Input
Amino acid sequence: MSKDKRIDAYIAKSADFSKPILTHLRNLIHKANPEVTEAIKWGMPSFDYKGAFCSMAAFKQHCVFGFWKYKLLSDPKGYLGERFNSGGEAMGNLGRMLSVKDLPPDKAILDLIRQAKKLNDEGVKIPKPKP
Output
């Protein structure tokens, strides 16, 4: 498991409410996909595995997390959609997060991460939008 010190620094300088959220998500990502690599892209923590995988960010009043191929993930409980995204519009797939309590259950997040890993293992690409 390789961790990028720039992500350590990003989390350390984030608002106090966001540190547990970012740390928890990072740990789940590594637990479900130990082969993931970390980087800072577009100024935020990004995780790659055989291509783009997922990313997270902290803002002044909320955190976000998202999968690159979220539209291809099986999400029967709607964690990536409207039901769970009650915090209003936010970058990412889980809506605005203000505490670890705002996250779906760990089991659900781990499942989504493993699904995303499988998509990248299989070389599945995001379908291009139709004009």
